[in-house]
Amino acid sequence: GEEVAQTPKHLVRGEGQKAKLYCAPIKGHSYVFWYQQVLKNEFKFLISFQNENVFDETGMPKERFSAKCLPNSPCSLEIQATKLEDSAVYFCASSQSERTGQAGYTFGSGTRLTVV
Amino acid sequence: GQNIDQPTEMTATEGAIVQINCTYQTSGFNGLFWYQQHAGEAPTFLSYNVLDGLEEKGRFSSFLSRSKGYSYLLLKELQMKDSASYLCAVYRAGSYQLTFGKGTKLSVIP
Questions:
Q1: What is the phi/psi pair of residue A20, to 5°?
Q2: Are B98 and A42 within 8 A, CB to CB?
Q3: Which of A53, B55, B69, B86 is deepest in the core (most CB within 10 A)?
Q4: What pLDDT score was predicted for residue A99?
Protein backbone atom coordinates (compact mmCIF):
# COMPACT_ATOMS: atom_id res chain seq x y z
CA GLY A 1 0.00 0.00 0.00
CA GLU A 2 0.93 3.65 -0.10
CA GLU A 3 0.94 4.20 3.61
CA VAL A 4 3.01 3.00 6.51
CA ALA A 5 0.65 0.99 8.67
CA GLN A 6 1.30 0.86 12.39
CA THR A 7 -0.61 -1.23 14.89
CA PRO A 8 -1.95 -0.93 17.44
CA LYS A 9 -2.79 2.77 17.63
CA HIS A 10 -2.86 2.68 21.41
CA LEU A 11 -1.27 0.28 23.87
CA VAL A 12 -1.47 0.32 27.65
CA ARG A 13 0.88 -1.82 29.70
CA GLY A 14 1.58 -2.20 33.39
CA GLU A 15 5.12 -1.56 34.47
CA GLY A 16 7.18 -4.68 33.88
CA GLN A 17 4.94 -6.05 31.14
CA LYS A 18 6.01 -6.64 27.56
CA ALA A 19 4.92 -4.41 24.69
CA LYS A 20 5.05 -5.26 21.01
CA LEU A 21 4.47 -2.77 18.22
CA TYR A 22 4.10 -3.49 14.52
CA CYS A 23 4.89 -1.62 11.32
CA ALA A 24 4.17 -2.50 7.72
CA PRO A 25 6.29 -0.25 5.46
CA ILE A 26 5.21 0.96 2.05
CA LYS A 27 5.60 -1.79 -0.54
CA GLY A 28 8.89 -1.37 -2.35
CA HIS A 29 10.54 0.64 0.42
CA SER A 30 13.75 -1.01 1.52
CA TYR A 31 14.43 1.07 4.63
CA VAL A 32 12.50 1.13 7.86
CA PHE A 33 13.18 3.49 10.75
CA TRP A 34 11.81 3.54 14.28
CA TYR A 35 11.59 6.77 16.28
CA GLN A 36 10.37 7.46 19.79
CA GLN A 37 8.59 10.76 20.42
CA VAL A 38 8.20 11.75 24.03
CA LEU A 39 6.53 14.86 25.41
CA LYS A 40 7.63 18.24 24.07
CA ASN A 41 8.06 16.81 20.57
CA GLU A 42 11.46 15.27 21.18
CA PHE A 43 12.14 12.63 18.55
CA LYS A 44 14.71 10.00 19.35
CA PHE A 45 16.06 7.67 16.69
CA LEU A 46 15.99 4.04 17.78
CA ILE A 47 16.92 1.72 14.93
CA SER A 48 16.85 1.34 11.15
CA PHE A 49 16.66 -1.65 8.84
CA GLN A 50 17.65 -2.30 5.25
CA ASN A 51 15.20 -5.01 4.30
CA GLU A 52 15.58 -7.58 7.11
CA ASN A 53 19.05 -6.47 8.15
CA VAL A 54 19.76 -4.06 10.98
CA PHE A 55 21.28 -0.95 9.40
CA ASP A 56 21.86 1.29 12.40
CA GLU A 57 20.96 0.44 15.98
CA THR A 58 22.87 3.18 17.76
CA GLY A 59 19.72 4.55 19.37
CA MET A 60 18.41 1.33 20.86
CA PRO A 61 18.42 0.75 24.63
CA LYS A 62 19.61 -2.80 24.04
CA GLU A 63 18.86 -4.25 27.45
CA ARG A 64 15.09 -4.11 26.98
CA PHE A 65 14.40 -3.11 23.39
CA SER A 66 14.60 -5.36 20.36
CA ALA A 67 13.37 -5.08 16.79
CA LYS A 68 12.99 -7.26 13.73
CA CYS A 69 12.04 -6.94 10.09
CA LEU A 70 11.41 -10.41 8.69
CA PRO A 71 10.48 -11.20 5.08
CA ASN A 72 6.73 -11.20 4.37
CA SER A 73 5.92 -9.98 7.89
CA PRO A 74 5.39 -6.57 9.47
CA CYS A 75 8.42 -5.16 11.24
CA SER A 76 8.18 -5.22 15.01
CA LEU A 77 9.55 -3.33 17.99
CA GLU A 78 9.42 -5.13 21.31
CA ILE A 79 10.00 -3.74 24.78
CA GLN A 80 10.58 -6.24 27.54
CA ALA A 81 9.76 -5.20 31.11
CA THR A 82 8.37 -1.78 30.25
CA LYS A 83 9.16 1.20 32.45
CA LEU A 84 7.20 4.38 33.01
CA GLU A 85 9.70 6.36 30.92
CA ASP A 86 8.92 4.18 27.90
CA SER A 87 5.57 5.98 27.62
CA ALA A 88 5.75 7.73 24.27
CA VAL A 89 4.50 7.64 20.71
CA TYR A 90 6.54 5.26 18.60
CA PHE A 91 6.72 6.19 14.94
CA CYS A 92 7.80 3.96 12.14
CA ALA A 93 8.93 5.45 8.83
CA SER A 94 9.98 3.92 5.54
CA SER A 95 11.88 5.13 2.50
CA GLN A 96 12.96 3.76 -0.84
CA SER A 97 16.63 4.27 -0.15
CA GLU A 98 18.90 5.44 2.59
CA ARG A 99 19.24 8.71 0.74
CA THR A 100 15.72 9.93 1.24
CA GLY A 101 16.05 12.73 -1.24
CA GLN A 102 13.07 14.81 -2.17
CA ALA A 103 10.49 12.41 -0.85
CA GLY A 104 11.69 12.29 2.69
CA TYR A 105 10.58 9.51 4.91
CA THR A 106 6.92 8.50 5.03
CA PHE A 107 5.81 8.18 8.62
CA GLY A 108 3.15 5.91 10.00
CA SER A 109 0.52 7.34 12.31
CA GLY A 110 2.31 6.02 15.37
CA THR A 111 1.56 3.79 18.33
CA ARG A 112 0.91 5.55 21.61
CA LEU A 113 2.34 3.43 24.41
CA THR A 114 1.24 4.25 27.94
CA VAL A 115 2.97 2.45 30.79
CA VAL A 116 1.07 2.64 34.07
CA GLY B 1 27.26 15.47 18.36
CA GLN B 2 24.45 17.50 16.89
CA ASN B 3 22.58 20.52 18.15
CA ILE B 4 19.42 21.77 16.48
CA ASP B 5 17.61 24.85 17.77
CA GLN B 6 14.25 26.29 16.83
CA PRO B 7 11.80 28.47 18.75
CA THR B 8 9.40 26.60 20.99
CA GLU B 9 6.26 28.52 20.10
CA MET B 10 5.07 31.17 17.68
CA THR B 11 1.75 32.90 17.08
CA ALA B 12 0.67 34.55 13.84
CA THR B 13 -2.50 35.96 12.34
CA GLU B 14 -4.56 34.35 9.61
CA GLY B 15 -3.50 35.68 6.20
CA ALA B 16 -0.10 36.82 7.43
CA ILE B 17 3.41 35.52 6.76
CA VAL B 18 5.50 33.72 9.37
CA GLN B 19 9.13 32.62 9.33
CA ILE B 20 10.29 29.74 11.52
CA ASN B 21 14.04 29.61 12.01
CA CYS B 22 16.27 26.62 12.64
CA THR B 23 19.96 26.63 13.46
CA TYR B 24 22.08 23.54 13.58
CA GLN B 25 25.57 22.37 14.41
CA THR B 26 26.53 19.03 13.00
CA SER B 27 29.34 17.20 11.31
CA GLY B 28 28.81 15.61 7.93
CA PHE B 29 25.71 17.63 7.08
CA ASN B 30 23.85 16.18 4.11
CA GLY B 31 20.54 17.98 4.01
CA LEU B 32 17.76 19.50 6.07
CA PHE B 33 14.10 18.56 6.20
CA TRP B 34 11.04 20.41 7.41
CA TYR B 35 8.05 18.40 8.61
CA GLN B 36 4.62 19.49 9.74
CA GLN B 37 2.97 17.62 12.58
CA HIS B 38 -0.60 18.18 13.74
CA ALA B 39 -1.38 17.15 17.28
CA GLY B 40 -1.76 13.40 17.56
CA GLU B 41 -0.78 12.77 13.96
CA ALA B 42 2.27 11.63 12.02
CA PRO B 43 4.80 14.16 10.70
CA THR B 44 4.26 14.99 7.04
CA PHE B 45 7.04 16.00 4.68
CA LEU B 46 7.18 19.66 3.67
CA SER B 47 10.60 20.31 2.17
CA TYR B 48 14.16 19.13 1.75
CA ASN B 49 17.15 21.45 1.21
CA VAL B 50 20.61 20.18 0.45
CA LEU B 51 22.05 23.17 -1.43
CA ASP B 52 22.10 26.80 -0.35
CA GLY B 53 19.15 28.85 -1.43
CA LEU B 54 15.41 29.07 -1.41
CA GLU B 55 13.03 26.26 -2.40
CA GLU B 56 9.47 27.37 -3.03
CA LYS B 57 6.41 25.14 -2.97
CA GLY B 58 3.16 27.00 -3.10
CA ARG B 59 2.54 28.80 0.17
CA PHE B 60 5.59 27.18 1.80
CA SER B 61 9.23 28.04 1.12
CA SER B 62 12.38 26.81 2.79
CA PHE B 63 15.80 28.40 2.83
CA LEU B 64 19.19 26.95 3.66
CA SER B 65 22.60 28.45 4.33
CA ARG B 66 25.12 25.67 4.92
CA SER B 67 27.94 28.02 5.83
CA LYS B 68 25.83 29.58 8.58
CA GLY B 69 24.14 26.38 9.74
CA TYR B 70 20.81 28.08 9.29
CA SER B 71 17.47 27.34 7.70
CA TYR B 72 14.03 28.84 7.78
CA LEU B 73 10.56 27.80 6.77
CA LEU B 74 8.37 30.57 5.40
CA LEU B 75 4.60 30.18 5.43
CA LYS B 76 2.57 32.69 3.45
CA GLU B 77 -1.16 33.48 3.49
CA LEU B 78 -1.55 31.65 6.76
CA GLN B 79 -4.64 29.55 7.26
CA MET B 80 -6.11 28.23 10.48
CA LYS B 81 -5.22 24.69 9.40
CA ASP B 82 -1.53 25.68 9.46
CA SER B 83 -1.67 25.55 13.26
CA ALA B 84 0.70 22.67 13.97
CA SER B 85 4.21 21.86 15.09
CA TYR B 86 6.96 22.39 12.55
CA LEU B 87 9.97 20.15 12.89
CA CYS B 88 13.42 20.88 11.52
CA ALA B 89 15.47 17.71 10.95
CA VAL B 90 19.07 17.28 9.85
CA TYR B 91 20.16 14.42 7.65
CA ARG B 92 23.73 13.46 8.36
CA ALA B 93 25.87 11.67 5.80
CA GLY B 94 26.76 8.13 6.73
CA SER B 95 24.17 7.68 9.47
CA TYR B 96 21.00 7.55 7.31
CA GLN B 97 18.95 8.82 10.21
CA LEU B 98 17.28 12.14 10.86
CA THR B 99 18.03 14.18 13.95
CA PHE B 100 15.07 16.34 14.85
CA GLY B 101 14.83 19.66 16.59
CA LYS B 102 12.23 19.94 19.33
CA GLY B 103 9.73 21.54 17.00
CA THR B 104 8.03 24.93 16.84
CA LYS B 105 4.38 25.01 17.81
CA LEU B 106 2.66 27.53 15.53
CA SER B 107 -0.71 28.92 16.51
CA VAL B 108 -2.65 30.77 13.82
CA ILE B 109 -5.24 33.15 15.23
CA PRO B 110 -8.13 34.88 13.45
A1: -130, 125
A2: no
A3: B86
A4: 59
